[in-house]
Amino acid sequence: MTAEASALENRFLAACAVAREAGALAKRRFLDRKSFTVGFKGPQDFITEVDGEVEKLIRSRLIGVFAKDGFIGEEGGVAPGGQGEPSWVVDPIDGTANFARGTPFYCVSIACLFGRDIGIGVIYDPMLDELFAARRGGGATLNGVALKVSETQALDRATIEVGWNMRAGSEAFLGALARIIAAGAGVIRAGSGALGLAYVAAGRRDGYVENHIKAWDCLAGILLVREAGGYASDFLAGQGLSQGNPLIATAPGIREALVAAAAMEGVAP
């Protein structure tokens, strides 16, 4: 095994183990509703102290083993890496609004970048004990079983998740939603972009679109979709890592139709 392959494999195994440990912590707190308080970072942007606790655990475990790696966490846990070293991109609880309201649909999302390539993507749903995992060139799995995106060939037979947040504004969201519905697709919004992407990889959704999403919400899911045979737009183009970008991820049979219907600026057919 080459040094590069060994570095990828070691980090992949670590990410899977840490995701499960972090998910167990999140689940314990979720089930004890009185153990945390709920606040807001902005309109409809929920935060709990559990987010910070879980991120701290993930960072301590990963950087404790891979001391030279960089780390970017949603809750501000940023550590610069050594020259040329991989960087972790982490959302400790994706779906915090669900978590805060007692809805059991949230996850831990851990990605690892090797340069500008996503090398590792791990998403763990602690409520269903589902570990979605992918490494570059190694395929995608759910609890060890290989994943494949759906074989849907037409939007009027597809279910598409349309993500939403306040950053892109209501007009952009409603416009994409209306066009996708007009094309005949069924639509859904479940409140976790990371799990939405994992569900595309698993064939539970046919596509996921969002006018603006942040790196920690989607990098792991992007790799899962690609390794399961699907298409994901070039999220890391421009300032995607630091500023976010639009995103379309889909089964290949509806790629052109969904890109055309979503009509998102910066995403070409």
At the fourth level of CATH, the homologous superfamily of the largest domain is Fructose-1,6-Bisphosphatase, subunit A, domain 1
CATH architecture of the largest domain: 2-Layer Sandwich
Largest sheet: 7 strands, mixed
The SSE string, one letter per element, is: HEEHEEHEEEEEEHEHEHEHEH
Task: Determine Rg (CA atoms, Å).
Answer: 17 Å
Q: Per the principal axes of the C-alpha atoms, what is the gross shape?
A: globular
Overall residue-averaged pLDDT value: 93
> How many β-strand runs?
14
Helix content: 25-40%
Total number of helices: 8
Order of strands, widest sheet: 3-4-5-6-7-8-9
Terminal residue distance: 38 Å
Q: How many domains, in number, for the residues?
A: 2
In terms of per-residue confidence, which ranges show pLDDT below 50 for 5 or more consecutive residues? none
Give the percentage of residues in beta strands: 25-35%
The CATH topology assignment of the largest domain is Fructose-1,6-Bisphosphatase, Chain A, domain 1
Structural class: alpha+beta
Can you identify the CATH class of the largest domain?
Alpha Beta
